[in-house]
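Curious: why this fold?
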Amino acid sequence: MRRTPTRPVRRSRPGRTVRPVPARRVPTALAAVLLTLAAALLGAPTTARAGTARAAAAAPVTLEATFPAPGNGWAKVERYLDTTPGFGAEQFPSDGRGDQDGARRTYFGTGRPSSARFLLYSAAGWDTGSQATPVLLVHGANDNADRAWANPGESGTCGAASCPSTGLAQYLAGTGRRVFAIGFAHKHGDNLLQAQAVGDALALIRARLGVSQVDVVAWSKGEVAARAYVSSVKPSWGRAYAGDVRRLVTLGGPHGGLDYVYAHGWDFDLATWPACGGTANAPSPHLYMTCYGTYTAQPCLGVLPSGGYDCYPGQRQLLARWDGTYGVDTTAQDWWTTYYGGQGFYTSGQGIQAAIDAGSLIAPLRQAGVPAPVRTYLLAGGSADIPGVLNEGRGPSDGLVFTASALDTTGIATVGGTRLLAGLNHLELAWAPDAASQVNTWLS
């Protein structure tokens, strides 16, 4: 059904009176959009550069449960609890859209686990692989280790008309690599908390295999968590980088940030706003929206905290402005007030700069830098053709992340290589044969 807001407001751009215009029809199949978006902050980060020999204090991590033979090419899945003070339960949307689902609900034992918990997946061959350096795979937003790395077709959303039943985990294991993956408790969680979990997972792998370093492959939002770890960008109570990453490979990582949710905010609202019938697990750039003639508030859905709610704490951290480079989508309803803040015809919000000021990690990560011993590789896609999604078309992109952002090397001391795979979109970067082959080459 078409959504038809009916509450006009006289001003959309400061100092300029405009006439109401009808709401345009937009795509509502935006679930795949959620695989990368912007982010949030649970406390001010501190930064510290770590030398190659410096090790962080060991984390108090407890094994809570083990699930043998879980399928999808995994040998086992384990649930761990980090008892470090500072971790806690992040907020989930009350209607369940952000809850853990499928096998992950079983693994966590609940749909809404505390962010002190994480899953460690071990691929078949983790204890027999011939390659010296093991690999940890780090998934992105609104995703999980099963769909991201082992069964891209699990949810039917893989970026292509036909989805494979195996992924990068099986590919790398087939080359003799000992492969692991982390599973996060919150689908849009705080990257600073998830960075600490990455450090925990690396420590467990090192202890299990008796190695000093691990290679990390991070996709999409997972790049920010992985980079925060190696850069020692952390909460005040967090542990610094332990010098245990040999190579960092990023796939469609928003190194330069993104502004998709603000540049195309109207489309997100129609797909996510409950009063308009939206159910997608996505944040909104707005605080208020008119649906069916009623002006409504959904504070839990906001990129910025509102009314005591902050259900998408991983969103503000990925934000950066690209309006000076590629402009803003001026065909979108309330485009000016969505991006720059204010009262529009049907929506009201604070704008992208307020969200950046409230906790984007892009500038702090660039300033902290990736330590020189961590050889870093950046892979980008160049095909904005994700099915069922309003693809990012303001400039060259993989459909969600600008190519220039995914290949931005600012603050990276040792760049091992970069590559643009022009024929792949954002989702295909995690499983397509060309991408898997390139990852394997870089790890070699």
